[in-house]
Structure formats: structure tokens, C-alpha cells
TrEMBL record:
This is ABC-2 type transport system permease protein. It comes from Geodermatophilus saharensis. The chain crosses the membrane at residues 12-37, 57-79, 86-111, 135-160, 167-188, 200-227. Keywords: Membrane, Transmembrane, Transmembrane helix.
Length: 232
């Protein structure tokens, strides 16, 4: 267990990268949106309007965990940590990040609601249906997608580390073909209305907690299977 904790702490060796950059980019996105809402008056002209700027935090968390495999893993194995220990430490770090960031987002969402969207009607940190009344549930709603982003990053990092640029581009092409083919199929069946109705009918717990946790389970299993054959 001590070695797993040591592996988890490796992710905090460079807090500027692992914490500073994600939150710096998220705060930059927030400032841009706040200025837009304040100068253009989006909140007054379109009450209830939201922004997807908080997605910048989720995207940078994904990138950070890609780097956790491509950059930190060789160092960890150089310290005689096994692949399994490194993976468990990384998973522990991902859970810690998701809970901590989810709690911070819940606080920011509460302040946002109490101040009327920072005085300009901006809904940034928990936009739309992601803003829930229960504080504990807000942590889960904000944190579960972060956990999914982290494990997606680990899985992508494993692909890059094992197969290099060829593997990464193959993954990109595969994703384009899969989602593009899915979009073509839905369009052919003229089922976009049904898809939209299904999404609207789902609870926020299903969309923001249950589905991300399914993504976590799938990517965690795939990442662990791939990591066992990665060469430092």
C-alpha cells in the first residue's frame, strides 16, 4: 500500500503542470466568458443562457493524465515500481483529483448561484442541468466526468506509450470512423429527435454520474490490460 501511495504522490511532483495548468486554463476561460456576459449582456438578452467553457478543465485533466503515462511512468519504473503499482497509484490519484476538483466546482457553483451568476447571469461552473441543489450530489455530478476524463487520458497515454504516434493516429481515425458512422446511422434513420428526447428524459444522475462511471470502468480495464505490455 505504501508503494501505491508513493506512485500516487508522483503525480504531484510538478504541481504547476498537474494542478496549475488545468485550473489556469479554466480560470482563463471563466474570465473570457465573464467579460463576454458583462459587456454584451448575454444574461439579460438570453436569460438561462449557458456556456461550455468549464469543459476546458475536463480536457486539460485528460491531457495531464495522458502525460502521467508517457512521462511519469518511465520514472516510476526506474524507481523499481511495477506496472501494477504505478497503475493503482495513478488510479488513486485520479480518484483524488476527481473528488477534490468536484468539491471545488461545487463550491464555485454555489457561489455562482448565490451571486446571480457573478452579477451578470453567467452559469459557468455548473451549467444547465449540471447545477443541482444538493451539495454532495453536486460533487458527484461535477467529479464523475472528471474521473472519466482522467481514465480516458490514462488509456490514451497507454496507447501512445505502447504504439507511439501510429497508435495515437489510429485511435483518432478509429474514433472519427466510429462516431461519424454512428452519426450517419442516426441521420439515415432520422432518429435525432428520438436521441434528443431520450437525453432529455434521463436524469442528471444518469447523464453526469452513471454514464461517466461506465466509461471509467471500461477505460480502466482496457488501460490496465494495455499497460501490462508497455515498455518504459
Amino acid at each position: 500500500m505504501n508503494r501505491v501511495l508513493a506512485a500516487a504522490r508522483l503525480h504531484l511532483m510538478n504541481p504547476v503542470l498537474t494542478v496549475g495548468i488545468p485550473w489556469g486554463i479554466a480560470l482563463l476561460s471563466f474570465c473570457v466568458n465573464l467579460a463576454l456576459w458583462a459587456t454584451v449582456g448575454v444574461g439579460e438578452e438570453s436569460p438561462g443562457a449557458t456556456t461550455g467553457g468549464v469543459a476546458s478543465l475536463y480536457i486539460t485533466v485528460l491531457v495531464v493524465f495522458v502525460q502521467s503515462v508517457t512521462q511519469i511512468m518511465p520514472f516510476a519504473m526506474g524507481m523499481s515500481l511495477s506496472r501494477r503499482t504505478f497503475y493503482l497509484g495513478t488510479a488513486l490519484a485520479a480518484v483524488g483529483v476527481a473528488l477534490a476538483y468536484g468539491a471545488v466546482l461545487a463550491v464555485l457553483a454555489a457561489v455562482e448561484g448565490a451571486t446571480g451568476g457573478w452579477g451578470v447571469g453567467l452559469s459557468f461552473w455548473a451549467p444547465g442541468r449540471l447545477d443541482v441543489d444538493n451539495a454532495a450530489l453536486q460533487v458527484l455530478v461535477s467529479g464523475a466526468p472528471l474521473l472519466a476524463a482522467a481514465f480516458l487520458g490514462v488509456a490514451i497515454g497507454v496507447v501512445v506509450k505502447r504504439w507511439g504516434p501510429t497508435g495515437l493516429w489510429s485511435l483518432v481515425v478509429g474514433a472519427i470512423l466510429f462516431f461519424g458512422g454512428l452519426a450517419i446511422l442516426v441521420s439515415w434513420q432520422r432518429a435525432w429527435g428520438d436521441v434528443g428526447s431520450w437525453l432529455v428524459a434521463q436524469s442528471v444522475v444518469t447523464l453526469a454520474v452513471a454514464i461517466p462511471l461506465v466509461v471509467v470502468l471500461v477505460t480502466a480495464a482496457l488501460a490496465f490490460a494495455g499497460l501490462r505490455r508497455v515498455v518504459p
